[in-house]
UniProtKB/TrEMBL annotation:
This is TetR/AcrR family transcriptional regulator. It comes from Nonomuraea cypriaca. Residues 29-48 bind DNA. PANTHER family: HTH-TYPE TRANSCRIPTIONAL REGULATOR BETI, HTH-TYPE TRANSCRIPTIONAL REGULATOR RUTR. GO terms for molecular function: DNA-binding transcription factor activity; transcription cis-regulatory region binding.
Length: 210
């Protein structure tokens, strides 16, 4: 019988995410991940085979777990729209500086040039949009959104807003990212919010950078 694993694959993938934020996927080394995880590079090779294997495992794990912030938001917020805001803020919680976002965006090159990475990225994007649409559907049923709401189109607009806000915030550095994200989401939802909704929910604060 082999020795039991003292560090789970999930813990290693979390360490991989932290290392990517510092070095980006291109500058990442197995040694850097090993230091972050408190393991030897040989252990990473044994489990994942190579740096590419580790990055693919990281991408696959991200696609498989993107629903979790939405599920947790449902557990902690009775309002679907509050849950949506909280979920999107949670998704962006791994970014605290423009440099960290740059590290994460380095994956975009892999996503666009490598079909294996692109498949995971596409799955991640589709699942994210489906989760957003689910909360928007609940918000319509709860009367939090009114008017002629086309949920698929609005879900896409909110998803685009989420990604765009990350970029604008990294460029301008205007205030905390969580506040910018909530304001941008509220602005996207503003045409569908009831007129008697709280003022901050009807008029999202403008983003910096135009």
């Amino acid at each position: 019988m082999g020795r039991p694993r003292t560090t789970s694959d999930e813990a290693i993938l979390r360490a991989t995410g932290r290392a990517i934020a510092c070095h980006g996927p291109e500058g990442l080394t197995l040694a850097a991940v090993a230091r972050e995880a408190g393991l030897s590079p040989a252990t990473l090779v044994q489990r994942f085979g190579s740096k590419r294997g580790l990055l693919l495992a990281y991408a696959g794990h991200a696609a498989e777990t993107v629903h979790l912030p939405f599920e947790q938001a449902r557990e902690h917020h009775r309002s679907p729209l509050d849950g949506l805001r909280a979920a999107l803020v949670a998704l962006s919680a791994g970014v605290s500086t423009p440099e960290e976002l740059a590290g994460s965006l380095g994956f975009l090159r892999l996503d666009l040039t490598d079909p294996d990475f692109r498949a995971y990225a596409a799955g991640h994007a589709r699942r994210t949009r489906d989760e957003i649409a689910g909360l928007l559907t609940e918000a319509v049923a709860a009367g939090e959104l009114t008017g002629d709401v086309e949920v698929p189109r609005l879900a896409r607009a909110v998803q685009v807003t989420y990604n765009g806000t990350l970029i604008l915030w990294a460029l301008t550095g205007d205030g905390p990212l969580a506040a910018a994200m909530r304001a941008a989401v509220d602005e996207a939802l503003r045409p569908y919010l009831p007129r008697d909704a709280p003022a901050e929910n009807r008029t999202g604060a403008p983003l910096g950078g135009g």
